[in-house]
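Sample pair:
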Amino acid sequence: MDPTAAVTTAVTTNVVVALVGLAGCVVLLMFLIVRWKWHVFLALLLPILLFGVLPGVQRNNFIQAFETGFGKTLGAIGIVIVLGSIIAEALRHTGGVQVITRSMVRLVGAKRMPFALTLSGFILGVAIFSDVAYVILNPLVHSSAHVMRVGIGTMSIGLVGALQLTHAIVPPTPGPLAAAALVGADIGKVIIFGSIACLGGAVAGWAFGQFIAGPRLRTKPAEEFKDHGFLEDDTSRALPSTLGSYAPIAVPVLLISAQSVGNLVLEEGALLKEILGFVGWPVVALSIGLWLAFRNIGETENQTDTKNQWIKDGLKTSAMILVVTGLGGSLSEILKGTPAVGFVADLFASYGLPAILLPFAIGIIGNLLTGSTTVGVITAASLVAPMLGPLGLSPEAAMLAGASGSVIIKYVNSSYFWVCTSLTQMPVKEALLGFGGVTFVGGVASFALVWVMWAVGLV
């Protein structure tokens, strides 16, 4: 079922009640997270429930919309989020991150390590949470800065920005997967055009770190990593091959993208289209990726116990994303049954504002106030999903615009900011310029490319 389909019964027909409910949900959500430090699950659940007790709200219709939105959203994306989280655990523990980074260094050369790290971040952010990936790569950042005789800012800024971009924008990372489900976007199209936007944003972030912010930052690399051999052969463990390391990421992405391309160019009923439709279904594609990830387990390890541990860790990681995504679906479904949707769309039309600015702005606000990219992208998708028709926005454009906004900007209320700041040993003032700056530059550059692709009809 299309997540953007309208509910058959109205939650309320009162415009004032609808707008008060919409504004109250947003303000209370941000207040509970920022001021009282509530977990995002409870901070999102309480405003939705309070919406239901407003005068003029039809309680039975409200309950129906809540349950329909929650179940419909998780039915579309729940298994895929879990599979993606398990694949991330596999890449983390098998050494796939190290192998992928080595391949990027070989591609562009060790003398261009900041760019190699940026490209590594662009790829790894698709599958691994950005803070986890940075923790793994931190020794290489310091040791490379020693070798190239540059500051830690020059070496790290492009990587920090690239990891955050693909983490926020390109499935199968859980955040963008959830947002795509909420607006009913074609995941294959989101992968293709989101990757284009992210690549442009990552290159812009690398240039910012290399030529603008990096030379102005004085922090030197840590001495403890001076002789760290991250890129040297490690005889203490058997690393997977380059092909084996890329396969769990690349194969699902290619299969999902091929399904989308097949839907565009192949005739209805064609055998190839049916085959691509099944193997490119995200549940199947990610299952194949998981099987490929399991093949990288070392022969000396207890494979059954290792797989089970990855699954347990992946389930823990994905649990929060699942419930927040479901609640986002509930809020979206509730808003569809109110006149707030038409009011906001008419407001944008009356002022002549480009519709694509709305999800972008919501993504920025969600991230700035909460420090969470996931909250930013899911909030943008939840609020904009019922307005797509009146605004004249495609699901893909709305999702990519909101996701681009959700990385702007990382500063002191972001856990990712503190992970990168503490590991690089930068003073907060320098980190605000370097890491705050690169997430601003990368997010704006990515959004600019999304806007261009929307304007010419690609998304």
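The chain has one domain: 15-455.
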